[in-house]
Design brief:
Elements: H1 6-14, H2 18-26, E1 38-43, E2 49-57, E3 60-69, H3 72-85, H4 90-94, H5 98-105, H6 113-134
Antiparallel strand pairs: 1-2, 2-3
Amino acid sequence: MEKETGQVNLLRMSGYSDKAIDYVINRVNVGEIEKPDACVAYTGPCGDTMQIYLKIDSDRITEAKFQAIGCAGSYASGSALMEMIKGETLEQAEKISVDEILNHLGTMPPPKIHCACLAKRTLEQTINQYKSRTEK
């Protein structure tokens, strides 16, 4: 990390990898997409909410962003998953597992593993919404 801050140190001490910390601090892939092809918000059992925005061309994800109301784990997981799905087909994106998201991140505190589940579940619902609208 270029600049060590109190937040970075706290995240590191909590068990986040440097990659996860970078995603959280730099808000990678956080934001809205104007006129998305698919957009769904989902609230997980812990109360965190994630909203995913996708641009899709010929069943391939060309742009992916998210917003969250949640903890650092939600931001790290959302950022990681958006990185992983860009350029992938919908079928490839659907096959990404929670373990793959966690492996992409490196390490996360064990109590925050559910955040990767939140990202995966929100993506599933976003893709399902897109398919239900376009397959008619």
